[in-house]
Amino acid sequence: VGFFVEDPGIVREGTPLFNEQGDSIGVVTSGTLTPTLGRALGLATVDSDFAGEGTIIFTELRGKRVRCRIVKTPFYKRA
Asked: Is the pTM of this model over 0.85?
């Protein structure tokens, strides 16, 4: 699935993903900061229960909980 990082930070490959209760639900397969969209985003494998567009998931960066939102891919539409 694709996701946007809603809080400050860039999520990298191999970063674990969690639900709101802190249960493991997946892992980031790719993450970056994109100048085209001006935000951090990534791709991940997650349990199917959490793969729906708009679902909020979490990760941890430098000891802080970071919120992410599942989005459709591709991340942008060409003009």
From this structure: yes
Q: What is the mean pLDDT of residues 5-30?
A: 97
The total of other beta-carbon atoms located within 10 Å of residue 39's CB is 13
Q: Which residue is it, tokens 């599942």?
A: 70
The 10s digit of each residue's pLDDT in 26-78 is: 999 999 999 989 999 999 999 999 999 999 999 999 999 999 999 999 988 77
Which regions of 1-79 does DSSP assign to beta strands (E)?
Answer: 2-5, 16-18, 24-34, 39-46, 56-61, 64-71
**Domain layout of the chain by residue ranges:** 2-71
Distance CA 21, CA 78 (A): 37
| 2-71, CATH topology level | Elongation Factor Tu (Ef-tu); domain 3 (2.40.30)
